[in-house]
Amino acid sequence: MKKYILLLLIVPFLVNCSKDDYNYTNKFLPNYSFSIDIDMTLPLYNQLQFPSNPVRINQAGIGINGVIVMNTGSGYTAYEATCPNQAMSSCSVLTLNGILVKCPCDGVEYSLFTGLATSAVQYPLKPYRVSLIGSNIIRVSN
Q1: pTM reported for the whole predicted model
Q2: Count of domains for the chain
Q3: Contact present, 130 and 77 (Cβ < 8 Å)
Q4: What's the first-to-final CA gap in the chain, in angstroms?
Q5: Per residue of the chain (142 residues), what is the pLDDT tens digit?
Q6: Staple 128 to which of 32, 78, 84, 90, CB 3.0 to 4.6 Å?
Q7: Structural domain for 81, as ranges
């Protein structure tokens, strides 16, 4: 009897274990694997040490059209720089507008604090994993 009780207690933990804190599925955006370490002591990324100063990273192989990283004051966020509610095209690269990004295709704006649109749309911005290594390195990955 004790074996069955132990089994009933362990099985829910095994079933609910997951690699990610979230599961983002979007029919418009493919999932490309990447990882980048961002050194905030470099002049190019120095503004990430201060809240509300987003930085766009356009290196080849990083995201689809790059990644936008921002210090929110309580942590860091990183989002795909591609419009989440449009098929990929020449106009689907997000443009920075302060703490918002705008999709040139449909004019929808998204908050870099939450990833949510300022109007009703199907998908929020595609988030990426962010971890702080030491006090000066931000790792962004998918």
Answers
A1: 0.83
A2: 1
A3: yes
A4: 44
A5: 554 444 444 444 444 444 445 578 899 999 999 999 999 999 999 999 999 999 999 999 999 999 999 999 999 999 999 999 999 999 999 999 999 999 999 999 999 999 999 999 999 999 999 999 999 999 999 9
A6: 78
A7: 19-141
